[in-house]
Amino acid sequence: MNYIEEQLKKAKRLRSSLFKDPGGGIYNNQPCDFVLEDQNLNIWEGIREDAIAYFYQNSICFWESVNRPTGHLLSSQISCANHLFFLRQRQDLATAILQGVDRNVQRALRIEKNETDNGFVVFEENGQRNYLNEKSRIRGAHSTSIDAVMLGEMKDGTRKLFFINWKYTENFSLHAKAIDDKGAFCSQNYISFLEDPSSPIKLCKHEGLFIEPYFQLLRQTLLAHEMVKAGEYGATDYTYLLIAPIENRELLDVNVAASHLPGSRLSETWSNLLKSPGKYVVQNPREFMEPATYCSDTLTISSYLKQRYWD
Q1: Whether the predicted model's global pTM rises above the 0.70 cut
Q2: Cβ(301)–Cβ(46) under 8 Å?
Q3: What is the C-alpha separation between 41 and 18, in angstroms, rounded?
Q4: Predicted local confidence at residue 179, as pLDDT
Q5: 256 phi and psi, to 5 degrees?
Q6: 209 phi and psi, to 5 degrees?
Q7: How far apart are CA 262 and CA 216, in angstroms?
Q8: Domain boundaries, the chain
């Protein structure tokens, strides 16, 4: 049984005990037992109302559902929100998390993106400008957005952005190929960034970069680089975090673009393509969140995350 099969089995079990929901919500135009009938229940009750309002007020699309949270119990976007949204107004928790990633962090800083997006975590960040010359600027859909972003003040007084790509059960075909129309689109929008001498990515066979998940890593890394180059939020450096369950071997332990890019595992392959591989960090969600669990008033959310995702 692979990781997604294990998580589907667990989701069906939790559907009744944790959510008290009969399932049968719609996914791919058909009712599914791993999709909640009441979509809102997919978000932890302690943040539910605020999280839904935050996405709506900031015109952020929910995956597969646009204006409402998806009922799909294995959604990585929902997982990201359930793990991180409660940090938005807690500097102590955000600081603990960032110090767990980088011991040179002095404290977490509030990100003031706009009047309704002001906190220690920003979701579906796509930058203040259209750095990658993309056709859409919708956060969370049809443009390069990063699941979550945090900002740290370092011990030397500088600022660093932490870009978070949150994964859950995703995996990609070993026989994946670059999609023709996507390849054409990429050649117009991203190759110039790759060929720029300041690019964070080494010169390599472009075809491999247009295969998922490398295509997403490429776009998000370029966005992170351009945002820091522009001095967004006063940052002069960044760390790119891939947060993924260590048990998801189908994602982490393969290189789906092996015919184009050297390496046997995802992180090995991607790190080798970076001019500064130290900017790329992979962590397990439980490991990433652990520093916050030692802070006050986190028992309820920690218990929820443990029951739903970690155990």
Answers
A1: yes
A2: yes
A3: 10
A4: 55
A5: -70, -15
A6: -75, -20
A7: 18
A8: 3-310
Task: Give the pair of three-digit tokens for residue 173.
Answer: 């075909």
Note the pLDDT tens digit of each residue in 154-213.
999 999 999 999 999 999 976 666 655 455 455 568 989 999 999 999 988 788 898 999
Condensed to tens digits (0 to 9), the pLDDT of residues 259-288 reads 999 999 999 999 999 999 999 999 999 999
Residue 106 class from Cβ within 10 Å (0-12 exposed, 13-18 middle, 19+ buried)? middle
111 contacts 94 by C-beta, under 8 angstroms: no
Cβ distance 273 to 202 under 8 Å? yes
Distance of CA 77 to the CA centre of its chain: 7
User: 3-state secondary structure string, 205-229?
Assistant: CHHHHCCCCHHHHHHHHHHHHHHHH
Neighbouring-strand partners of residue 2: none
Residue 185: per-residue pLDDT: 52
Beta bridge partners of 241: 164, 281
**Distance between CA atoms of residues 48 and 69, nearest Å:** 10
Distance CA 36, CA 69 (A): 10
From the list 275, 281, 163, the residue with the least C-alpha distance to 228 is: 163
Instruction: Give the DSSP per-residue string, 128-194.
Output: SS-TT--S---BTSSS--EEEEEEEEETTS-EEEEEEEE-SS----TT----HHHHHHHHHHTHHHH
Q: Amino acid letter at 158?
A: T
CA distance 170 to 185: 24
137: which residues sit within 8 A by CB, 6+ positions away?
A: 126, 130, 143
The phi, psi pair for 242, rounded to 5°, reads -100, 110
Q: How far is it, in rounded angstroms, from Cα 132 to Cα 226?
A: 8
